[in-house]
Amino acid sequence: MHRKEYPRPQFVRNEWMNLNGEWNFDFDDNNIGQKEKWFLNHEYSKKINVPFAFQTKLSGIHDKSYHDYMWYNRTFAIPKNWEDKRVILHFNAVDYECVVYVNGCFACKHIGGQSSFSVDITDYLNYSLEEVTVYIYDPSTDQCIPRGKQYWKENAESIWYDRTSGIWQTVWLEAVNSSHIKSFKMTPDVDNGQLNVDLRFSSINDNSELLIEVYEKENKIQSLQSKVSLLNVNHTLNIYRNDIFNSFVHNNEKVWSPENPYLYGIIFKLIENNEVVDEVTSYFGMRKIHAKDGIVYLNNRPYFQKLVLDQGYWRDGLLTAPSDEDFVKDIVLAKQMGFNGCRKHQKAEDPRFLYHADKLGFIVWGEMANCANYDDTTIQKISNEWIEIINRDYNHPCIITWVPLNESWGVPFISTSKVQQEHSLALYHLIHSLDETRFVISNDGWELTKTDICAIHNYNHGQKDE
Fold first, then answer.
1. What is the mean pLDDT of the chain?
2. Model-level pTM?
3. 343 Cβ contact list (under 8 Å, min separation 6)
């Protein structure tokens, strides 16, 4: 069993290759692999099923003991029709620090177990049999890295789960033109019936043009074509006319909600010399969230959120869902029980889950793994991952709230420590500087600094009434 579905459903290109499945694998408990240059030549003793961590049953290894250093390795062949393209290697999530080598050459380093990263590996390819090697360090007992509910003791107990080390989401390749779309942010403006789009390109020339097409089901309702003279451009698209906007909201027809998850299709095309050199398919929902007089409004109407706390763990895969259908099953069951959304708990979830939440109509409060304790190093670690996660997940209409801290995890003395209070405030403002369209809860459940929602966790702990 391995995960085969397209890993980034809000940014779809046709030319891609899944690298999940069987990889070579070894523990490096004495941390000698770098010194001995295992990235150049090493006889691996184990196999692992990517993207399942070695602690899981589905990995084929199922070893829950401490192993902080590990190596992954596999070979692959580049399709012939990719030989004039740039080849991008993507990792959806690797916990925690990793170094990537391609054909024995250093390609990149990444720190952060919850966020995605990629690297252009074109210059390292030999166009015969390619080899990718990944060296990973995941400090099992370090309480000052973002670890969420992964336990720092060897055996899980109480509210804590087994650790998830190494590759735990999809690894994949993508072929692009040297001039391509690097990213885009789509911000709906429900009040004016518009979509604001901010795009970034890898490179442009004097003949570069951008074509944007918007679809309702199979019907094209809007298109915009313009010259591209800068690497970063912004456009505003009229999605529906203002004079009929009120009827849309009243009838709940054209705006996104859990009751009516209405989505538009959108296609971005980069054109050079009248030829399409890059094409990306995506979707968006017209959705607005705000609060007034203590009431939450969804699309300008009062809305009651009934959310389940979704921890996103599976018996055989831990943080990794055994299959894409497991995401669907969780959402469908929650809706059948009367919930209209979830708070993802101590985990930045796989983009496939967010895709299904968009499609099925399921509100998400997005949360990242917290540290268990605090020191000066946690500030950069937490902040860097939040920037990467928000940039990745910004376009999902299902997400209406960001939760940077939970119950003072990682800030145990926030009630009295000025430093930890400032850390909470910094995260609140950092997130809002990246996303002004959603709520931010500074420390969900416990001591709050500045926050958009006053969240209180009230535990009974099974006490009986006298």
1. 94
2. 0.95
3. 307, 308, 309, 310, 364, 365, 367, 401, 403, 444
- The SS3 assignment for 116 reads coil
The whole-angstrom separation of Cα 430 and Cα 237 is: 28
Q: What angle do CA 140, 144, 145 make, to 5 degrees?
A: 65
Cα dihedral 239→241→247→251 (10° resolution): -10
β-strand partners of 102: 105, 132
What spatial distance separates the first Cα and last Cα of the chain, rounded to whole Å? 52
Query: Cis omega (within 30 of 0) on the bond before 137?
Result: no
- Token look-up 């979707």 returns 283
Residue 424 has pLDDT above 80, yes or no: yes
What pLDDT score does 240 carry? 87
For 136-153, give one letter per residue: b (16+ CB within 10 A) or e. Answer: bbbbbebebbbbbbbbbe
Within 8 A by CB and 6+ apart from 25, the residues are 44, 46, 47, 48, 54, 61, 70, 71, 72, 73
**pLDDT tier at 465, thresholds 50, 70, 90:** low
- 21: tokens are 């499945």
**Packed helices 376-393 and 351-360: angle between N→C axes, nearest 10 degrees:** 50
Q: Please give the Cα distance from 456 to 444 (Å, whole number).
A: 7
Query: What pLDDT does residue 250 have?
Result: 45
Q: pLDDT, tens digit, for every residue of 285-323? A: 999 999 999 999 999 999 999 999 999 999 999 999 999
- Phi, psi for residue 238 in degrees, rounded to 5: -85, 115
Strand partners, 309: 343
User: Is the Cβ–Cβ distance between 285 and 188 less than 8 Å?
Assistant: yes
Lowest mean pLDDT among 2-11, 17-26, 411-420: 2-11
